[in-house]
Amino acid sequence: MNTQKEVNETRITLREHEAIVENINTGIPMNRRAITPSDLALSMLVILEDEAVVQYLLREKNFDDMFENFFNVQHINGESMIEEMKTILGMALDYIQKAEDDEAVTEFFLTLVSKFDPTEFSEEETIKALRRFLSRIYTFEDRSHIQELFTHLLEEINLLGTEMVGQFAGKIMEQLLKSVKKNTLDIEMIHSLFKATSLVAERDWVLEVLERHIPKKKVCSSPLLPKNCFIYQEMMDGALIVGIEVDSQRFDIHYHRKQFEDVGHPKMLFLFTVRGQKVLGCQLVCVKDQVLTPDTQLYRYPFSNVFEDTRTCWPDLNSYQIKTVAHLGTMPFAFLHSQNNDHAFRGTNLGEMYQGLQGQDFDNETLVKLDMTFEEWLGVLKKTLV
Q: What global pTM score does this model have?
């Protein structure tokens, strides 16, 4: 009796849009069916080694396409991807740490940070993440990076709301002062804190704080003052402000090559700034009031060599040496008797104006108002010296 050994096999025939699967038993087709290429590929995965599957998927290194399809399928099925994402990220981090690739860790972290939006997280989660990150920066060798980060956070302090800014700034100051050791005071840091605070504090507050460091002595002892001095003030930096009042009267004027006699002038206020024996500057305005008050209206000097901001054009001014403050009483007359030209004159013909005022008092009604009072004028000058 001839016994033939039974042989079972599967034959697969690939066509354009399907695959034909036939079960062959000892050469006799027993079953025949058509399946899709996708179903065929999935049925073959179980007999492939894991490395072979991964190598095939990554053969073209189309990571975007591969993972995009994966996430699209999850989204269509309505399934959560949180656990899968945690697994993928965890595996990636483990691999990077085992490889000890610092550059890869940096790129990985920067990629995550670029996608991080604090507004999509709770306040607790955001603060927790920041604290965990900031707890590692103590190992920085270059501390300037930490300072830059801290400065950036301070610039964004408006995130706290205006009602918390003062409280927040106070805590920062307290923490900085606590970090200073009592036995070895960081003078430079203390100086920086005080200077930054004094720039925004009220002047009276700064003086109050400094009061215990200032000797109880006279701040100013007036020297012999010139006649008609309407103000004498010593600034903290040593500069002096001295004002000389010149009543309305007539002066001889040198205009180009011509001389005009007894030319009427209005009442004038000269304001000099002095440091040591050097005259730094001079300002000149006119007034109508006989008695000066803070609200006294100021008027423009009607002739030449005085700018709109009341500064005089006086090239030789810095060459004068003032031995005493009293000598400033002669300076207005040095200006009035100096050579005149048309510089900064705002009229039509200065020569005709001088001609018409010879032997005449100046008509105050022709003066042009300045947009400031006597008090405001002094305030502007003092600010420029701060």
A: 0.46
